[in-house]
Amino acid sequence: MDPQKIISELQYKAVRSSGAGGQNVNKVSTKVVLSFDLGNSKVLSQEEKLLLETKLYSRLTSEKILILNCDEDRSQLKNKAIVTKRFLDIITAALVIPKIRKATKIPKSVIRKRIKDKKNVSDIKKNRRKPDF
Which of 92, 61, 71 is nearest to 29 (CA)? Predict the structure, then answer.
């Protein structure tokens, strides 16, 4: 996956931020909405698309579009940079394939040690009892 090619497929839209903000909030569009069409992406292979679809299932719309917004800063450029970085982080994290865990056999020495420790605890508890005459 090449980040530069994926960034070329992104679509940005600037909208007005919500909430309190004073004089600027009603006339300046600083919130940035990023949308990425996963289904029609030409950069990603079919396997990568399937992997992203399964891992990002809850974040995708019914048309397989990923939408992210950012209104953290008062600057549109900074918000665009933040949302792009967030997008790349999400995509790279979702494309990581976890290593398959290999089941290993428990060593005999570990089993012996566990049984020995159990025996010691049992002896300690036996010695705490009142003597039986």
Answer: 71
Delimit the domains of the chain by residue range: 3-94
Q: What is the pLDDT of residues 30-61, one digit of tens each?
A: 899 999 999 898 999 999 999 999 999 999 99
Residue type, position 3, single letter: P
Rounded to two decimals, the pTM is 0.71
CB under 8 Å to 37, separation ≥6 — which residues?
9, 11, 63, 64, 65
Where do the H-state alpha helices sit in the chain? 3-8, 46-55, 76-94, 108-128
Burial of 26 (0-12, 13-18, 19+ CB in 10 A): exposed
d(CA 62, CA 59): 10
SS3 49: helix
C-beta of residue 36 within 8 angstroms of C-beta of residue 90: no
Domain 3-94 is of which CATH architecture? 2-Layer Sandwich (3.30)
